[in-house]
Structure formats: structure tokens, C-alpha cells
Amino acid sequence: MKAHARLTACFEGGRTVLRELRSMAPLTLLPKRGAGVTAVVHLVNSATSPLGGDELKLTIRVGAGASLRLSGVAATIALPGPHGEGSSSLVDVVVEDGGLLEYLPEPTVVTARARHTAEFRASLAPGAFLHTREVLVLGRAGERPGTLATTQHVVRGAVPVLRQTLTIGDSTLDSSLAHLAGRRVLATDLVVGGPSLPAASGEWWSRTPLAAGGTLTTSLAPDAVTALRVFDTV
């Protein structure tokens, strides 16, 4: 399955309006009515996906002065294909000057034998704001995880803010969890354009200021709820 969903938000008449809202199964975009100054859209997987062989793409455009919150409704479950083929997803973001985007999807669970590649790519104007999270879960309870390769590439103006690629998962559960110090969940929280925060760390989490501006917070935990709780307290 190949699917490409598109979402464009513009600032008009003192509020954010959705100029383009195009879903394509399994990527379904559901706007929330009466959201106010910030437009709120929910991202729903309307079919079992990504399944091995799927190629999914989500394009997000936020115009100057517009404010958009795009949040997930349920976890993404990466599943193996019938012949062992891999799946891929790409989130392509552009935020113009004065624009604000919160992209907060639900966790991605890498099930047994799945091979999934996920890429998040964002181009921000110098005066743009971005807040995004990524939560990776190695397998369902008691299950050996598949393999996930995830890439985050964020630029602000012409300056790279974050470029990182991580491959996790393996053919054996013990080996896979060793990559996460025995924990099943890795969560990252990226803020670009907000107030500058100093470096800090605690038990199973760390916060790192980025050289080109922005803050990256990372959390390791036995479950997604615990991993996300860190971001609300640090």
C-alpha cells in the first residue's frame, strides 16, 4: 500500500484555518471543531498499518503566523509483511516564520519480524516553533521485537538543528533490549524555538541543549506511560 496524506494550515482573519486536509487510508486526518486560535487535528490509522511493503507519507505545511497541533489517537503498530518485506513512513514538515507546530503522535510499536523505517524531516524558518515527540516500543508484551530504523532531520533557516539516526531491535529479545539498557521504551522530546534550557539529567533521562538552538530530552523506561511522564516533570 502507498498512501500520501497532506495538511496545510494558514493564518487568516485572526485565526488558523486548514487550507488543505487530504486523507488517504490508512492516514486519516480528523479536524477538531471550535479549536480556537490553534487548529487541532487528530491523526487516525484507519487500517492495520504499517504492514510490510507499505509506503506512507504525511506532508505538513504551516504558514506564517499559523498555529497547528497534530496529535495521534492510537499507537502505530509496525507489522511484518507476508514475504518479509519492510515498510516505511515519512513525515515531511515545513513551518514558516511565526508559525507553530506541535506534532505529537502516539507510540510506534515494533512487533516481531517487522522491519520498519521511519523518517521525520522538518524545515523551519528562523522564527518558527516546533514541538515533536517520538516514542519507540520494542515489541508487544512478552514479544520479540522486529527492527526499526528511525531518522530525525531538522533544519532552521539553512542551519542543521538535529540530524540523528537510530536502529533498534534485533532477532533476539535479550540482544534488542541491551541496546536500551534493558528498557523496552525510548522516548525523545524535541523543542525548537522555545526558551533555552540548560543541560540536565536524572535517572534514565537527559536533556541536551542543541548547538543551533532547541532542546532534546531523552527518556528510557519500561513502558510508554513512564517514559512520557518524564517530559511533564523535567
UniProtKB/TrEMBL annotation:
Keywords: Chaperone, Cytoplasm, Nickel insertion
One Pfam family it belongs to: UreD
Complexes and interactors: UreD, UreF and UreG form a complex that acts as a GTP-hydrolysis-dependent molecular chaperone, activating the urease apoprotein by helping to assemble the nickel containing metallocenter of UreC. The UreE protein probably delivers the nickel.
Species, as recorded: Amycolatopsis roodepoortensis
GTP-binding in keyword set: no
Annotated family: Belongs to the UreD family.
Gene: ureD
Keyword Calcium attached: no
Alphabetical list of InterPro entries matching this protein: UreD
Name of the protein: Urease accessory protein UreD
